[in-house]
């Protein structure tokens, strides 16, 4: 968890340490398929493992690599369309170029902040947040 002037900021699951993706797991709660850890069911429905791997490759190809982290596009309902989460503040940005510019400015504005990867938001936590 990171501290900010307004309190702790949890690292979003789309922010991963290194050039990596989270492990993929077969669903044990609602179906027997595989869910994307970065997207809601309305964006990407559960499917076979091979189709999810192809989908995850697209996430990886569109990721922003910054300071030893890969920041993938988020398909949860935090916003109506796909977006990136800033690891230094609570801002979300739609376009990749705008996000890359934001990262540079935000890192300078928050030098005490350090992104902590690994995704503290889990799929379950994201689904619960959407229901609130």
From TrEMBL:
C2H2-type domain boundaries: 34-59, 84-110
Domain of life: Eukaryota
Protein name, UniProt field: C2H2-type domain-containing protein
Species for this entry: Cirrhinus molitorella
């Amino acid at each position: 968890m990171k501290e900010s002037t307004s309190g702790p900021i949890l690292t979003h699951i789309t922010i991963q340490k290194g050039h990596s993706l989270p492990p993929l797991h077969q669903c044990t709660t609602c179906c027997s398929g595989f869910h994307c850890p970065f997207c809601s069911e309305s964006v990407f429905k559960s499917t076979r493992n091979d189709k999810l791997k192809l989908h995850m490759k697209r996430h990886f190809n569109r990721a922003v690599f910054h300071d030893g982290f890969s920041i993938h596009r988020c398909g949860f309902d935090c916003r109506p369309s796909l977006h990136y989460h800033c690891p230094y503040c609570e801002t979300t940005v739609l376009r990749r170029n705008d996000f890359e510019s934001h990262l540079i400015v935000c890192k300078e504005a928050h030098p005490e902040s350090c992104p902590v990867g690994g995704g503290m938001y889990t799929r379950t936590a994201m689904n619960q947040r959407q229901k609130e």
